[in-house]
Amino acid sequence: MHDISAQAVHHHGPPTSFIRKHVFSLDHKVIGKQYYALALLAAFIGMALSWMMRIHLAWTNAPIPGLQLLSKSGAPGGVMTPEYYLQLMTMHGTIMVFFVLTTAPFAAFGNFFLPIQVGAEDMPFPHFNMMSFWVTFAAFVVLVSSFFIGDGPTLGGWTQYAPLNAVGAVAGPGQGLGVVLWMASIALFCVGQLLGSLNFISTTLDLRVKGMSLMRLPLTAWAWFITSCMGLTAFAVLMPACILAILDHVAGTSFFVASNLVINDQLIPKSGGSTLLWQHLFWFFGHPEVYIAIVPGIGIVSHILITNMRKPMLSHRTLIYSMGALAVLSYMVYGHHMFVSGMNPYSSLAFSFPTLVITIPSTIIVLIATFSLYGSRLRINSASLFSLGFISMFVSGGVSGFFLAQPSIDIMLHATYFVVGHFHLVMGVAAMFGIFAGTYFWFPKMTGRMMNETLGKIHFWLSFVGAYCIFMPFHYLGMAGNVRRYSSFPDDFLQPLIPVHRFITVAALITGAAQLIFLYNLIHSRFWGKPAPDNPWEATSLEWSTPTPPPFDNFGGELPVVYHDPYQYGVQSSAGDYVMQTSPEQVKTEHEEK
Amino acid sequence: MAKFFAATIIVIAILSAIPILRHTWDAPEDISTHGALIDEQMSETMAEAGISFLAAQFVLAFFIWKFSGRGPEAKIQTFPGGAKGLVIAALLVVGIEVMALGIFGVKAWANVYLTAPSADAMPIQVQAGQFAFYFRYPGPDGTFGPIHPELVNEGSQNFFGLDPEHDVDARDDIVTAEMAIPVNKEIHLLMHSKDVGHSFFVRELRVQQDFVPGLDVSLHFTATKVGKYEIVCTQLCGLGHYNMKAYLYVYSQEDYDNWLKKEQAMQ
What we know:
The complex is a heterodimer.
Chain A: H1 2-6, H2 18-23, H3 28-58, H4 67-70, H5 82-118, H6 126-145, H7 177-206, H8 219-250, E1 262-263, E2 266-267, H9 275-309, H10 316-330, H11 345-357, H12 359-371, H13 382-404, H14 407-413, H15 417-447, H16 453-479, H17 498-528, E3 568-569, E4 578-579
Antiparallel strand pairs in A: 1-2, 3-4
Chain B: H1 2-21, H2 35-67, H3 82-114, E1 122-129, E2 132-137, E3 174-176, E4 179-182, E5 186-193, E6 198-202, E7 207-211, E8 217-222, E9 227-232, E10 245-251, H4 253-266
Parallel strand pairs in B: 1-5, 4-10
Antiparallel strand pairs in B: 1-2, 2-3, 5-8, 6-7, 9-10
Helix pairs in contact in B: 1-2, 2-3
């Protein structure tokens, strides 16, 4: 490992043309930024969709100005139809889960920083890396194109349950071409993530610089490595599932359509398929996906908190093992999404216990992160605030997992807003907080400029309080039996809950508006921010030992040598209370170095 | 700012707990024989999750309050016991807690799903289709006539695709758009989907089960309180999903018999 990296040569020369430099770039840093830009665009589209959904849920018959421009038939006079609500909901979920929560913390930050943190000049397969981004971009274009083609996007939700996903246009608007585009988009997305995962794994295992043992990797690098291992297996299952669903549409197959189905009094001419097969394939991907979204966040906030606590976590190794345990267990728990699906009820019990067990590594991560604050010199800045907010959100979203892990309680809570509140807090908001923390922390290194701290803190306060105002009431709604995926609430028992929905909508609009502050800060700082020094946070890992922004080959032609564990803070060195991994200076440390 | 942040976390944690403690948006009263175990399991889980939630938020807030903004002169300290104590605590406290929940929860689940309906349970078939439920009672012969999918025709109100002309068993079947059951009588619900995935959810009965196209599944339950309740679909089934509902009437035996006679006369 060391020999290979020590002799590492440029895989490709510095680009000279505009196209190679900024568009079809082979440079992992440019690709990381491209992923970030894609995630940013996707996040704002996803958020705008959620605004429209929330307004519709709170004031069902109110016109939404401009919505008719997006779809005349979906929103005549600006008033959303029930089917258009479901189409927007499907696109919101798909865009957020795939193109934001997977793309930003894993592909964007991981691409930019993983090679630098291990001491490499680039990833081992730069062409695959470039393909990874552009295939993902193509996937996004295909998905968004469904807004403008045929009768609009699929309305089947981001889970695309069978056989609604396979019987064709007869099942409703968007269920023909819309589904095919959705499946094609996600299959492409899977290809992109598989290529990315291969690169991440080989970068971590093969390109570590001299002195960079596995235990000297920062927690971010470990998180991206573990995530890429999950990605390699999870996306490899989802991709064929999507292809099979496409075949059901275009090739007359019947993988997911059972015999004797009747829609609109027409007997569907297919037979022999399995409804539950799709659910098994989807959730075999779907549950690891939750951890694909959140594990990079765990790594990022740990990395940031350590820097701002000026001390390492209580146990580097335990955190790594806990993230690994999450990854392994994530494949054994997926059936908890299917407790009342009609699968064998004994299977529900078999899936329930690993689901309960997965709370143990999650608890260990929270306990270590929280109790590491003890005796620290905690610095408060936008990055550390979002990191601390991450812990709070992860706990709040995590404890509701106790309920959903139990089949008997799932009878009451399944498919209600309780589930929506749970996953939005634990994988949505928490992961977004990880992305925000990472942005405030790494922006100086990525762009050479500092972000505005005051705006960052305002953004944090509005997001933190706002997210709780939105997602905590979701749990109460779920406990009262409020079913999810309803475009309005005509049932007698749902009517009294509409005021709660109105409160949530107002909170969502305000919290969403606060994200514009972030966008302004991001764009303004990119061009007019204060120039950033090389190591503004007095941090130790390798990305802070490069010039800002890093040159094309990351280390100016000379690979660094690593002398220390990743987080030597709270020591006395010539630099201050920390020693960088690349510094040969010997310092007195509390524990022997690995 | 850090102290304000710590205070905010505590205020949010307390405000979040208040609706739970005040039972502001609780599930409605249980009307089933099996629901008490589910409710009990829910209460125990709420107690454990609630304590975990409040404790974690309070400790986080306390450490932020106590250790933020300390200058370089402040000594860096390690939490007594280090990670080992925390790992042991997580394994023992959380491990035992969740295992206990899991083991006790088996009983509540088994009551619904792992026991067979009694021999005299009353069979009712429910069919879900975009976007309505229909119910079928077997009539005096106690047997359902076979379904012929090719005969399903909503226009002629042959919702189940029955062929009474050729199938003797189908002749006395009673098809309704609402579900009525006698109180304190075990029901064996046979669930059939006509088209795509749907679900059968009655909050008061503590019953939720998906319909699986191509696979008939069944449920059994006993309602203990007379009344009118809503049956809703919880599995996204298409554009009219939000409006897919039916009413469940739990009658006294006498009222149920009268209802059935009336429905029979209308067939």
